[in-house]
Amino acid sequence: MVVTELSANELSQAIHGKQVSCREVMQAYLLRIENLNPRFNALVSLQDPAPLLAQAHACDTDLAHGHSRGWLHGFPIALKDLVDVAGIPTTCGSPLLRDNIPAIDALLTQRLRSAGGIVIGKTNTPEWGLGSHTFNEVFGTTRNAYNPAFSAGGSSGGAVVALAQRLLPIADGSDFMGSLRNPAAWNNLFGLRPSQGRVPAYPAGDVWVSQLSTDGPMARNMRDLSHLLEVMAGFDARAPLSLASLPPGFATSLQPKARGLRIGWLGDLNGYLPMQAGVLQACENGLRRLEGLGCMVEPVSLGYSPESAWQTWLAWRRVLTASRIAPMVARGRSFVKPEALWEFDQAAGMSASDFLTASNQRTAFYQHMLGLMRRFDVLVLPSCQVWPFDAALRWPAAIETAKGSVQMDTYHRWMEVVLYASLAGLPALNVPVGFNSQGLPMGMQLIGQPQGELALLSLGLAYEEVVGDWLAIQPASVQTL
To answer: Which of 110, 140, 198, 224 could form a disulfide with 8 if both were Cys (CB 3.0 to 4.6 A apart)?
Structure first.
């Protein structure tokens, strides 16, 4: 048995069946991290092995006395470096927070620990989680699991690379503007941006307005993803807009379901979104797999001004980002990356009336999306507009389409395709759609009904059964296990 090659569900069963000890699991993962993490730079703030092995031994003692802590019993886990873990730095990739050590766990950390996880460190993220390319001045650049010369995506880049390289059995991510979907697509994994409020965040400076970003699960297969969502989700009174818990045990009882579902293919929004050559074709290959499952796929127009949606998005993003980083800017602009300063400066001239107008526009967009969702069970878009790019770049200045080069006017315009699910607060599941000629992965977003995670997970389970050829393509270091 190669412990690090087991799925999370298989690992949980092996631990509970006492086929492998928690201590052996920890040793296997720590050895793999020692060998591979220096090349990919996925995990940061790693903890000393001795206390971790002691915690694993305590998990073994619990099992020997008939006590399981939960599905994650004895799992090595690492939280994204935006999530507080007591005693471990939360840097957010910022030099200003290099020595910021929280005294208490965030709610997400509490839930993962309560289910049996042992925190071994953090996963790398870009500064403040801004930008779909994971690099910062504190820890450096995270490299793509399939080719270290390329970007891993972001902002949950460290998490997905740790998963793809078998440095972790499961991983959390977060998603504002595709920060979970983009890196999952670029590393051939599954990643779910849940409905707004499904996975509550606490502590938080604001619990009423800041609802565009959400934590969510990432995994190498759909069953693991479902189990992790079960651990992460659920109402918490300290997050008053959080959603009621999903049915207990849903991850075990879920069944694949695809036949008869109506799928609306939005493509590039009738040419509005520039797409690098091959991206749409890869997604269409995935759609054909859905058709083979009995889904009815139909091209559909968004029917709403995408430029209007973009301007609404910019207004919301500016306000939420600027308020978050304002204390850091006050400490010195030279310590804040240019992209974050751009967000801050863009928000400076906005009034409360401007923001309320943007809120009304967001409401109108949501109501429009509801109209589309009455016609279709699921809407589909690419998860990215470009293939993984050179890791030495900050972000793509242009997209090379089949018709020519299109310049990007912001640092995140090349990821415009992901904002529609975020702006509407809808669940969105990234699923793999294969590789390009350079061996780099791509994914597409399955956007579900409001609070429709269970149906989306069931569709993902069915899809997984027919894309085994793509999923079987593993990074070179995994193939040599």
So the answer is: 224
